[in-house]
Amino acid sequence: xxxxxxxxxxxxxxxxxxxxxxxxxxxxxxxxxxxxxxxxxxxxxxxxxxxxxxxxxxxxxxxxxxxxxxxxxxxxxxxxxxxxxxxxxxxxxxxxxxxxxxxxxxxxxxxxxxxxxxxxxxxxxxxxxxxxxxxxxxxxxxxxxxxxxxxxxxxxxxxxxxxxxxxxxxxxxxxxxxxxxxxxxx
Length: 186
Hints:
Elements: H1 3-26, H2 28-48, E1 52-54, E2 59-62, E3 72-73, E4 79-84, E5 87-89, E6 95-104, E7 110-120, E8 125-128, E9 144-147, E10 154-161, E11 172-179
Parallel strand pairs: 2-7
Antiparallel strand pairs: 1-3, 4-5, 4-6, 6-7, 8-9, 10-11
């Protein structure tokens, strides 16, 4: 490369830089406004983050089913707290609960909505595994088959009454206790 070609190459680069700086100086007001507008949009998004896009909906659910509250927040997640009789609970059983849906944006602003959730007991079909029993013996908890239980739930105990005396042909299921995997009565 000769010196003249080198000078020409440097001069072209310098011309490009001078052209760019001249264009930036000419449009500096528009560029500053655009930068400020972007900063304002980002600040507004941050300020409105955590706003509920859709409010939670009160409703009813069956024990063991997942209940979708319908609560959605703008640019953040929704956290839920469940209260029964004024005390916070973590394990939901059949009953009525007050649920608080909370969001928190990056500025620390907390938004909260509350709704009522009613959980109804799950219906289960009860049947006897063995239809024949010896005289004097009645069915026990191991003789009962249930369909429709939640995963991990099991029969803990069963109490039968005999309206015509023990060993007769008729036994009536009085109390059936079902437990979850932790041993809690459901």
